[in-house]
Amino acid sequence: MGFGSNRILKELKQFQASDSLQLIPSDDISVQYVDMKVGNNPLYPETYRLRFIIEDDYPFAPPQVQFVGPNKIPIHPHIYSNGHICLNILYDGWSPANSLRTVSLSVQSMLSGNTDGSRPEGDHQYCKSAPKNPLHSKWVFDDDSI
Amino acid sequence: MDSNTDMVDDSLVAQSLEDVHLTASDSPQERRGSSPRSVESTPPSTPNGYDITKELEDVPIDLRALVYISMPEHLNCPVCQLPFINPYTTICGHTFCKTCIMETIKSPLGSKCPLDRIELNYNDERPDSGETTFNDIFPAPIILSNITDDLQVRCLNEPRGCTWVGPRWQIKQHLVNNCEHTRFECDHEIDNKVCGKLTERRFLGFECPHQPLACDKCGEEVTLVTKDHHLMNECTKNLRKCLGCNLEFPEKVYESHEKYCEKIYIKCPGSQYGCEWRGSREVLHEIHTSECVFLKLSNYFEKQETKYTDLADENRMLRSQLSTILDSITQGKLTNLGYSLQLEEIMDNQSVEPFKLFDNLQEKDFIQLLMEFEVLKTDVNRLRSLVSERDLDKQLVTVLANDNVQIKDELDNHTVALTSIKQQIQFMLMDRRRLRSKFNSTESVIPSEQDSSSSTSNRFTNKL
């Protein structure tokens, strides 16, 4: 993982002073969970869990980021019911200057600004054929408004 | 200690060789090429220290494994989030470690600045010079390397007990030449074979430290290297007397005994809040605990302390965020990534509506202001004509005043002339009277009828 592991340890510390983003202690440094609360939006009253799988080439390649159970998957036109998130910074738009925390904040703000309580188009179809790793999906980013 | 078995040593050698590949000056390809280390086998939180297994000149040091005494946020590379190592600056003003920015260019992001995604032009390796030249990526000002090289770091052998702290530029010299905990391959011979085990510098002497010895206390077979560890953790005859109960315990269990001995003197648990009581644990539990005010308040104190540290943490985080934002504002780059990614996202997502509203409002305001401006303009024009009229009047008045003065002067002249004429006439009249009286005396014998006429003429002159 190069210097990635050192960096992850540092990044995990950045979560400590945050209330709406709670890092779940994990034994395996390459798999991290973050519990997310979204304030001020009645669409998302619950706590949602994000999973990060950090690969060897992190931070030069993006981590795998998706929502996982046991909590519910938030309903959002860019979040599939299998937890995959359509957000360009998680794929093509990744920059090594991003971190687990900035990614979490981006997802959080994506939720808090949303007013559309629906799944993306073709949700069922995608979930049937989607690869396990969201990085292996082919994403098309066409909507800049949300 | 960590040098008990060959197995451990071998794995450490393997790891240290890999660490060599991770040094700042090495190319990233090598890093990728090295077999991925599974995280479980080498937990990164417990680095093992520094070993020298090759020639002394050829011992790169993994600067990224260093532990810094203080890490100023502004000196951290945004990519590796550690103080810059060989910093390079981009045309857009951002600075990274050289390896970090080079690796970024090879990553899917491509040749863009990781912070603001500005396209960076660079030339690939030139075949003639073998040097990679970059137009938009160049070495950062030397002062930056000086500052980062002067940051205080701990020795890489800290887990083995080295307490050295010094500037980063000294770490290599310390590890290679001075540190007692740097490990070398033992070059002594045992049974005609080179020992070859990795051994800390402090054990290297005239004799091989791996030769078996008998423990002074129990007679078990130890070596110079393992002796300390044996005495503290294994030996059953290395006894230490407890100060409380006067019983003797082996070192390895002494610590746990100390925790439970009822007789040993300890401080009151409330001592950190000011209680000065000292006594045996027995008395503490039976008497002092129920009396001590500090102990009773300690719950409250603890709560306050955690609150305080939480707030301090939050404060520090907010301060760093604020300074990052201020930085980007002063650089005029609020829209870049890094921190500003969040800003951008939040603006995109949350503030679209309010912004539109704001725009409309501005337009309305603008029109209103424009109308007011027009009204004021006509007012000003009107006033200007009035003022010019007033100016003309003023000129006229001054001309008149001048005329007035002139006329007054003339008048004065005239008055003077008049008075002089008056005087002259009086003088002439006087003269005439004198002449008349003379004339009268000479003709005193004039007949009386002529007298009356002369008296009337006399009367006439008097009138004049």
From TrEMBL, chain A:
Chain segments carrying region Disordered: 111-130
Gene3D superfamilies xref list: Ubiquitin Conjugating Enzyme (3.10.110.10)
Pfam families: UQ_con
Record-level Gene Ontology MF annotations: ATP binding
Alphabetical list of SUPFAM superfamilies matching this protein: UBC-like
Domain UBC core: 3-146
Keyword annotations from UniProtKB, A to Z: ATP-binding, Nucleotide-binding, Ubl conjugation pathway
Record bears the keyword Membrane: no
InterPro entries listed in its UniProt record: Ub_conjugating_enzyme (IPR050113), UBC (IPR000608), UBQ-conjugating_enzyme/RWD (IPR016135)
Highest taxon of the lineage: Eukaryota
Protein's name in the database: UBC core domain-containing protein
Lineage: Eukaryota, Fungi, Dikarya, Ascomycota, Saccharomycotina
Automatic annotation (TrEMBL), chain B:
RING-type domain span: 77-117
Key words of the record: Metal-binding, Zinc, Zinc-finger
SUPFAM superfamilies from the UniProt entry: RING/U-box, TRAF domain-like
Listed GO MF terms: zinc ion binding
Domain of life of the organism encoding this protein: Eukaryota
A Pfam entry, by short name: zf-C3HC4_2
Region (Disordered): 18-52, 440-464
UniProt name for this protein: RING-type domain-containing protein
